[in-house]
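Holo model, methionine sulfoxide. Inputs:
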Amino acid sequence: MFSFTTDPAQPKSQLYAELRSAALALTDGETDAVANMANLAALMWQFLPELNWAGFYRTINGELVLGPFCGKPACIRIPYGSGVCGTAAAQGETQMVADVHAFPGHIACDAESRSELVVPVIREGKVLAVIDLDSPRVSRFDEDDQAGVEALAAAIGERI
Ligand code: SME
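Output:
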């Protein structure tokens, strides 16, 4: 069993530094990408408050395919360019959506989701996967969350 304790009330930069360090510790020496993504999804779920979904979509044969996650069952395949995840993958850039109801083409996997942060994991110039975080609160994510998840994506790119 792995036990990480964290204070969700601390400054976000500190919270994400702790998340990153737990992520690197938990994946250290493990080469199985699925095992690592499963533990990383569980860590994000534990560390980050006000989420209803946290996990990965992987690029397989040019489309996004559902990977390990915490939350309700989700859509399995997302074409590049579709929805928030597919847009992040196609552009290779983070998508931070304050209100998913206002995002054209948003794919509603869980009707509770109101805001979303999707960060590509890039290795050797290619989008290997995206990290997808959903929240039931409008405007749950800010620039500190974006910076924190982007740093996490950069740190774990070699391990998934
Ligand atoms: N809402 C996402 C789909 C994935 S689920 O949120 C888990 C999108 O529009 O890409």
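The beta strands are 53-60, 63-71, 77-79, 95-97, 115-123, 126-135. The radius of gyration is 14 Å.
Archived with the compound record.
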